[in-house]
């Protein structure tokens, strides 16, 4: 009995059917990589990077993977990587890669918010205001965007002078304040002048405000001569020779 001869088109169809069947069986045997494992691997990577920076007050948010995304089960540990410098207080795109048995690669957006207990204003503070204990309080805030620096203890801000208006509830930033003025314009001060052979102490009047280390103009009370000196302590100015 002579067998029926298949046409080339029929042979191609049968070949494709066998190929897809084998592929489907292979995928079925491999299974899919659980999304929870991928996300946990990314979270572990981010936490490890934060620990290097001693950054423990962070909130990590991962973008969830699409439920329809099917990735074959990896037969070895997932490779986690980043194509750019790790950002400890902002957005990162963290890569996840698998090499065997089937190669795949995805990127997961991760947002990191850094929190710290900082000094905030309990009153609106206008320019020139000297900060007192009634003006500030400690509060836990996100500080990633505060590039001007911030204070973590109330004692650090008491006596500082506001140089830029600060709104109620805002973080007190270092670049919005000046150090406490320990010499004020018109204040009677002690003038000191010294050399290797002698030391002269007299009185004078400050012609400028200033803090420790500032150079200000002063007037000698006896000679009425105007000179410059460095503030070395509250009410004490060392004359520049």
TrEMBL record:
<dbReference type="InterPro" id="IPR041231">
    <property type="entry name" value="FlgA_N"/>
</dbReference>
<dbReference type="Pfam" id="PF13144">
    <property type="entry name" value="ChapFlgA"/>
</dbReference>
<dbReference type="InterPro" id="IPR013974">
    <property type="entry name" value="SAF"/>
</dbReference>
<keyword id="KW-0732">Signal</keyword>
<dbReference type="InterPro" id="IPR017585">
    <property type="entry name" value="SAF_FlgA"/>
</dbReference>
<protein>
    <recommendedName>
        <fullName>SAF domain-containing protein</fullName>
    </recommendedName>
</protein>
<dbReference type="GO" id="GO:0042597">
    <property type="term" value="C:periplasmic space"/>
</dbReference>
<dbReference type="InterPro" id="IPR039246">
    <property type="entry name" value="Flagellar_FlgA"/>
</dbReference>
<dbReference type="GO" id="GO:0044780">
    <property type="term" value="P:bacterial-type flagellum assembly"/>
</dbReference>
<dbReference type="Pfam" id="PF17656">
    <property type="entry name" value="ChapFlgA_N"/>
</dbReference>
<keyword id="KW-0574">Periplasm</keyword>
<feature type="domain" description="SAF">
    <location>
        <begin position="116"/>
        <end position="178"/>
    </location>
</feature>
